[in-house]
Structures are given as C-alpha cells and as structure tokens.
C-alpha cells in the first residue's frame, strides 16, 4: 500500500517514524509534503527512499491512502482545492478531532476515516481512536496498519473530544502533574531534581506495567499502597481536599475550545 502524508509536523513525523520502525510500511512506499520544506527534507535524510512530492496533487496521485496531518482549519482549503485528484478507490485519513467523517465525505469522492493517534504510539504503544466511513476492506487495512503501533478502539462521534482528551492530551496533562510532583519534592526536601526525576519516571513506568499486565486495577493499586493510618493515606487526604473539581474543569475547558473549533470548521464546510 502506498501512503501519502500531507503535513510532517510533530504528529506526522511521529506516525512516519512509528510505521517504519514497526515495519508496517516501507519508506519507499511513503510520499510526503510539508509547507516547510526543511521538515520534509530531514525525513528524507533519515529515510532516503521516501519520496518528497512537489505538490499535494502529486501526493494524492501517488497514494492509495492519503493521511492529512495539518491544523484543522487548513484541511478544508486543501481538500477543496485538490478534491478532483481523489478517486473512489482511495481512502482519506484525518487525525484531527473537530472534523467528522461526515464532513470529510462531503468533499472527497473516496472512502474516509478519522484515526486520532497519541504520542505514546511512538513507543508502539497506547491507543488510537477510530471512526470509519469507508469500505470494510479499507477499514481492515487501516486497523492492521495502526495495530502495528497501537491498540485501536472504535469510538462514536459523541465521545470524540473526551476520548481524545484521555488518549491524545492525557500524556501532556499527566506529564505536567508529574513535573509538579517532582518540583514539590525538590522544593520541600533535600532530594535533587535529577534523582527525583529518575525515581518518579521509574515509578510511572512500573505502574504502567502493573496495569498493562493486569496485576492490579487503578483502585486496587491505591488500596495496596495506601495502608490504613499510614503515610500514603495522609498524602491522599491532601489530594482529596485540594484537587477538588480540577479535572472536571479541564474537561469543561477542552470541550469549550472543541465546540469553538467545530463552529469554525462548519463555516468552512457550509457550502457542502
């Protein structure tokens, strides 16, 4: 399968590296284009057999699957300008949450899908969120492709944002919390930042493996560590008192921005 990738920014680069490392795609079967040529050229230096296209139309014409990895507001102009280059046998794949498969289908004459990845896919791990509006054959091809780098989960449109918050935004949210955890340890005790970072990172990796191997659930993890009347319980009591509705507010804020983005996107697609 020949894959064309429009946009080689952070997530486009992560997907290319992951697919190649997982041996899901040969570099020679990938055609790329990026508004900033240097980013595409850096990939060409790493993978010499990757083809850099001179136009988006060339990417489409050389590809069976066209993956678009640009900012949400840039997708409609690209598709509108190049829609005639698509054929019914192809599939268009978007990785952005505000644009539904219904909107994509309204512009291009081929099958479409939306698969929202996570930075954790770079470790050939984590989850990717799937919504399909294509043939069963294309659905199976896409699942096979992304199962090389992730665990695929089908989602409905009405949970797209919260699912993306957990899977795609989650690593940034919890990296921030871990950073604050480390900073507080350094500020309040004699531990160095280097040692606190090593210990906290190792703790997080170990906890992930316990969950992955189903040794403990999240609830039983807390129960096993939090001995009644012990030190962990004192820390949990502080967190219960001070966290409050913080995470509720996080979801409220992300959903508010999501709905703003959807309004902007629908104005672009309104002619369809």
From TrEMBL:
NCBIfam families assigned to the protein according to its UniProt record, in alphabetical order: PRK07680.1
UniProt lists the family membership as follows: Belongs to the pyrroline-5-carboxylate reductase family.
Name the domain of life this protein comes from: Bacteria
Question: What residues does the Pyrroline-5-carboxylate reductase catalytic N-terminal domain cover?
Answer: 3-97
For this protein, the record's InterPro entries field holds: 6-PGluconate_DH-like_C_sf, NAD(P)-bd_dom_sf, P5C_Rdtase_cat_N, P5CR-like_CS, P5CR_dimer, Pyrroline-COOH_reductase
Q: Where is the Pyrroline-5-carboxylate reductase dimerisation domain?
A: 158-260
Q: Name one Pfam family in it.
A: P5CR_dimer
User: Which species is this record about?
Assistant: Ectobacillus antri
Protein's name in the database? Late competence protein ComER
Q: Which gene encodes it?
A: comER
